[in-house]
Amino acid sequence: MKTLPVFIIIFLFEVFNPSYSQEKVTVSGYIRDKSTGEELIGASVLVKETGKGVATNLYGFYSITLIPGIYTFVFSYIGHQNVEEQVGLTKDNLNLNIELQEQTVGLHEVVIHGEGAAAHVENVSMSKIVMNMEHIKKMPSLFGEADIIKAIQMQPGVISAGEGTSSYFVRGGSADQNLILIDEAPVYDPSHLFGLFSVFNSDVIKDAELYKGGIPAQYGGRLSSLLDVRIKDGNSKKFSMTGGIGTLASRLLIEGPIKKDKSSFLISGRRSYLDIFQRMSKNPDINANLVYFYDFNAKVNWKSTNKNRFFASAYYGRDNFSFGDDAAFDWGNATFTFRWNHLFSDKLFANTSFILSRFNYGLNIKDPVQALTWTANMDEGRFKMDFDYFLNPQNHLIFGYHGSYKRFFPGKVVPRSEESFVKTVELDKMYAMEHNLFVGNEQKLSERLMLQYGLRFTLFQNIGPAAIRIYDDPMDNINIQYHIEEYDDFEVIRSFPALEPRFSARYLLDPNSSVKLSYNRMVQNIHLISNSTVPVPFNTWQPSSPYLEPQIADQIAGGYFRNLRDNTLKFSAEVYYKWMQRIPYFADNANIFFNPDLATEFRPGSIQAYGFELFLEKTAGRLNGTVAYTFSNATVYNQYLNGGEPFPANYNRRHNLNLSAFFDLNESWSFGGTWLYSSGRPITIPAGRYEFDGYNVDYITSRNGYLLPPVHRLDLSASFSSRRSKQKRWRGSWVFAIYNVYNRKNPYTIYTRVAKDDDNMIVDPSQKEAVMVYLFSILPSITYNFTF
Amino acid sequence: MTSVRNWIYVWLVLTGLWACEERIELDIEQVPDGYVIDGLLTNQFKQHYVRIKKMVDFYDTARTPDVKNARVVVLDNIGNVYDYSWSSDQGAYFSNVKFSGVVGSVYRMEVELDGLIFHAVDSMRPISDITEVTWTLDAYEEENPQKEGYFYQALLTTVEPQETKDYYLFKIYRNDTIQRFDDNSGVFVTDDIAIGEIIKNLPAPVYFAIDDWGKFETYSLTPEAFKYYFDLSQILNNDGGMFGGVPANPVSNIVGEGGLGFFQVSAVASDSVQIGDPDKEASF
Hints:
Chain A is mainly beta.
């Protein structure tokens, strides 16, 4: 820890530098979109005379301190026209709120995303992707539904769990190591319809940022990534309506002012209608098995004064699946966020949030003899205070406190009828409290060198009430012997303190290129109980506890970043190495569903991951797009599995290549295409077979020793928009898309079975065969989108 | 909790509502040597068996070869020794004498073959008698039967002692042929965590035609045997690790290099019904 005192010395010198004793003036304010009133996140504020600048924070607020004088401020944001303001600063601080007009592009105009693109080189953050929502809406997609998760799966360093899934893996981490936030509230299952859709309605998303590494100190809780999704506040200028009618689902968004420029609201909904088509079928296998989802977003905000703003947002989503009259499943997320932004001064901004989040599922079996209801859920209440302190142009401090209370309910089974042989059983609930303190600073040491460093302290406590089973041998999952230790309400069972240092550095080689380095330690104290490659809704979460230690990841990354052709081409090359410890694996064939002795199935191990990522993006002109290539490797080290030999992680994919292109032919027509390639998933296949009691059984030797064939796919889309007209507010567009244009049979999984003929009849019970499953052949879709 | 887990498997299968399949050839390594020992000793008065077979390559279409030259003996914990002999008619080793296993006894099987020694230990737990087996017509299945004429159900009624932790294996027969679904993957095993005292009219997972005989056998299991059959069910119904666990060999109680399988000691309760017997039609 010799480096720590050095940074303290640098920080103190910069803070107490005599040059700063000269009287200064602070300019601060909000930057908003002129048409909608939405605060713009990451908008740039540049002072021409000094060459220094800042960016707006997550709430659209900026603050910059200067010596009194006359300055030219340039305000800019991607896709908007720049605004220049000449300002004379005397002795009084200045509040300067700016509205930026969205840029409309003529046929032959070249859109330059100027200073916004420069951030790619100049910002100290690396391994961070700001999702381009306009590109996402243009991407050809499954069933014509623009989806942010599907777009994330196309990014370097991100691997899709498989076609049609909403799970993804980041730099060697599993799906549960990704923290997904919607307006600061955690979402525990991001998928609808088995992963065909995600929980995010693209119409309501204002901003989405994915951190793969270099994660600042205010974030924590998962090892591998953070997806921070911010919902629009609602148009505070005028009422508007946006929606779409698609092949499988439709959506509608209504937003508008409650009091113009003061308060606004937003409400949106989506619903699928696959079940409606299913009911029309005469095939009982289809019309009896109904599946659908729906979700809602709602938000209201109020700017009471320039110093105080209040927001309340909520999400509710549900999936329902019924299997004839026999069974029904449902699951979903619900979140609520109340947020208060307060300006203590022109330099000190505070955000206080109260957050509630729930994920739950239910299974109902209706057959009277075995009728039951099985429910499980996880609830979380969280309090956050985040401070942004714009100390001076060289130092932007962040600090704060987060506290949360979590309740884990693994499951309860209740009989549904008097004839049912099922009896009421309830697994013990688990409780936890978590406290986080963090402090960080973004410090500009010179024109070339910028640092971002911080420390996060986490105290996670598994608390009562609880009746903890203390096992004689926690590794014996067959002959289970234990005694009970009782704990009262809020009594601490185990405490898990942890320090999570964070560090990033950027060195500008020239105005168009830089090198960056980052290190972060992440700790994860809630764990998904899953032994599959793709999580299923029935998986539950558990807190760190006597038999489940916190997961830890240390990641170091380095990269070269360059902008070309006047910032219209962005290039980056990154390498990373990540070491993850105490990863909760499970014994072979573990019983993870409704098991009161689940702790005896834990088999913790480690993962070593490394990789190399290349990214190129063209952001200007009629033709733009991206190229993303990832080479990666993730290896599991676990003394309890695979005979103690290392084996590839389930989500290991050696090569990934994703190409996307968008072409605006004219004001009405635009075209899009994506092509992706991914190495096959490691899979376990039999080395032989044997007979036991008449069963024909696979014999397994090595784990994940076989590779599925690679996945590659071409998707194309064409969209037609009616011309913009000042007289008509209604604007519609049609999107025609083809998914999997050349009808590639992309392997989803391989399983073995007793050999069958083409009529699905067993040929010979002593013969076995391997079967490859693939999902989607060529799929056309049509979607109609509208705004009003 | 078997019914709940079965519904989870159904859900996993039905996620493939839009899945397609095709056969592929796997490039598989050579199978290592190994012996599979499959023994069953019950409380029924009869000659009990031990089968010993070898593993074969995955794509080998022949029946797995029997091992005929082993020495097999079973001992109990009160000094009885039972020698077994090879029966070529039945392709297994049978005890030279008829005997009944005793609830509460511990049995050790020893096998010597090809210079190798294997042994396994299991014990016999009690089993409740089956209260009755009845039959009923499934009107819904009759409207649209999967197989013409097969829309009758055999129903099991029995009791589950609440004061002990128990594990069960069920075997269902139609006219003396064991039923395990069409793809031979059905393993009907459960613990008692969510099972109440009275199990009434539990239907067999197959349909019967009129005049068929339907038989239930319930086996008591030790925790080790339950683990084996639970693991067996996992590997027989595996989806390649996508939504379920990675395939892995069942945990065996056979001790000895290269030994697989299980030596099972169980008390058995059994009852049957002829579909259409007016005295055995179920009442609800």
